[in-house]
Each structure stands twice: as C-alpha cells, then as structure tokens.
Amino acid sequence: MSEEKRRKYDREFKVEAVRLSLEAGRTVAGVARDLGISANVLHVWRAKLKEEGASAFPGKGHQGPEQEELRRLRRQLAEVTEERDILKKALAVFSRRPR
Fold first, then answer.
1. What is the DSSP code (8-state) at residue 81?
2. Cβ burial 30-63 (10 Å sphere, 16+ → b, else e)
3. Which of 35, 49, 62, 97 has the CA that lies 20 to 30 A from 21?
4. Taking the alpha carbons of 35, 40, 41, 42 in that order, is the dihedral positive or negative?
5. Greater confidence, 71 or 1?
6. How far apart are the C-alpha atoms of 90 and 88, rounded to whole Å?
7. Cβ neighbours of residue 85 closer than 8 Å, sequence gap 6 or more
8. Does domain 7-60 have CATH number 3.40.50?
9. What are the residue ranges spanned by the domains of the chain?
C-alpha cells in the first residue's frame, strides 16, 4: 500500500481557487481538475469562505477569535487550578496540630 502525503495549501491558493470557481463559465469540477485538487475539497473551501469570510483559512498559528478566546480561557483555567491546589496544600500544612 502506498501512502499519499497530505498536501497543504496556503490561504492565497485557496482564495484564488474559490475565486476561479465562482467566475462565470467555469465549473467547480473544471477548476479543481485544472488545479490538481479534488472537487470536494474546492466545495469545502467555498463553503468555508462563504461562512467565515475574511477570517477563513487562518493558517497555522493564526487563530480565529473563537479559538483565541478558548485558548486564553484554557490557560486561565490551568492557572487558577494550580493556584487552588497550592492553597489546598498550604491549608493542609498549616492545619496540622503542633506536637
């Protein structure tokens, strides 16, 4: 069995592919064939660009506003959880009866 390596496309390529597929007289299948990609992939790109607009295809390391907020909240939760655990341990240490 041969494993095909997954190809990655930059944002500009995706946006240009979608633009070409929206031109009058061009079909999604024709544009996809010309670019060497699957028509299904091009349909997904079209839907994503229509749904998300300018924030579509953020690329690696560039997150949308929702993902950035989620990352910030997870980091904050981890910090607060660590602080709580430290306080619990301190309470246990100071609650011991002196001998």
1. H
2. ebbeebebeeeebeebbeebeeeeeebbeeeeee
3. 62
4. positive
5. 71
6. 5
7. none
8. no
9. 7-60, 63-99
Q: How far apart are CA 38 and CA 44, in angstroms?
A: 10
What digits encode the pLDDT tens for the residues 62-87? 667 787 899 899 999 999 999 999 99
| Cα–Cα distance for residue pair 31/21, rounded to 1 Å | 6
31 and 20 Cβ atoms separated by less than 8 Å = yes
Full DSSP string of 12-80: HHHHHHHHHHHSTT--HHHHHHHHTS-HHHHHHHHHHHHHHGGGS---TT---HHHHHHHHHHHHHHHH
